[in-house]
Amino acid sequence: MSKKRKKKVKETPQETKELSEWQKRNQEYLKKKAEEEAALAEEKEKEKEARMGKKPEKPEESDKDEGNVDHEDESTPNESESDITESNSDINKLESVKENSEENVEVSEDIKEEKESKEEKPLDKKKEKKKKGEKKPSKDKPNKPKIPGVHIWRALTILVPSFFILLLSVYLLSPYATIKDIHVEGTVQTTAEDIRQAAAIQDSEYMLSLIFEKAKYEERIKSNDWVESAQMVYQFPTKFTIKVKEFDIVAYYVSGESHYPILSNGKLDSTAVSLVTLPESYMSVMFNDSDKIHTFISELSTISSEIKSAIQKVELVSSKTTSDLVRLTTTDSDEILVPLSEIGKKLPYYSKIKKKIKEPTVVDMEAGVYSYSVADKLIIEAEEKAKKEAVEAEIRQKEEEKKNLEEQKNKLEDEKKKLEEKINQNQTTQRSQRR
Prior knowledge:
The chain has helices at 2-11, 21-52, 66-75, 81-119, 125-133, 149-173, 192-199, 207-212, 214-221, 290-300, 305-310, 343-346, 350-356, 374-434; strands spanning 181-185, 227-235, 239-246, 249-255, 258-263, 284-285, 311-316, 325-330, 335-339, 361-364, 370-373. By secondary structure, it is α/β, with parallel strands linked by helices. An eight-stranded mixed β-sheet has the order 5-4-6-7-8-9-10-11. A three-stranded mixed β-sheet has the order 1-3-2, covered by helices on one side. Residues 1-16, 54-84, 118-127 and 129-139 have low confidence and may be disordered.
């Protein structure tokens, strides 16, 4: 059967078709199996020959006809008939195994050809045209299987972040991570060095900490009494700009020749300002109580800039009814008496009164709101002064009269003592005479 089949295979020219991977693996498996079975048969044959004291035959001798084998077997005088039959049966088995393997290979090839013929479908004309232009893949180099897109995306989700983490770690370990170029803008009363000290930015700190923790450094800068607001702006690659807004100077506390600025937040600066830097017109405050200064600045913040610019001097006034009464002296020599805690409420009326008066006027806002001229004030003050002087004179007279009475009392007491002494002396003399 095997020889006939081989002849048929040789007679029918097979079309050169490309085998699939499964078909190739199947052929390789069948070939290996046939080789293993042949090797086992050869080993058994060698063992028998060694047992019988014969030399192992060459592989070429196994392909000889049975007649030659029988002739060689007959030449051995010590060989028994049973051994000869066994060797012949082994040879027959070997040949049958080879024929079966070849038949299996041929059957598998026939089955593959039938499957391929069934799977083939007529292609469209357009596809045939495209395939004509394409090159046929060679049998030696099979096409590599494509990697699915899901695996590519999974790999990218791991590789990309790890790459950036590696870059970041290298950057942080390098000296470039601590390079910072800091500039300060908007300072008038303070200096850039004061702002840097308030920010407390160390040379060893990373540049990234300044970028991601800007709010922390801005709050540190606000600890300076002069700073109202601070903003840190980053510019690539290493430049930082600190934009500062300072509090305005509302007034100056005057003590002798020293002037201490009072800021718009109600704080009194402890550093005196040189007289050269003082503006032409400014508000002088004659008291340094921190609570009263804070109240005065907070009340003054609600007043219009026209009234604020007109105030020249602020001083406390003693009053029996109002504990926080102040006198505001304007540039036009007007005087305003108003409680410190009611400046925001009562002081706006001054702008209406100012339109009606033509001479220096005193505006009294302690209890109500009324005004009188400075001349009337001087007369009133003179009268009050005269009254005070009269009262003081009366007090002095009373004190002098009191002193005179005390002196007269003392004289009478002295004379009384002298008389008593004389009487005592006379009595002693009379007693002595009687004796």
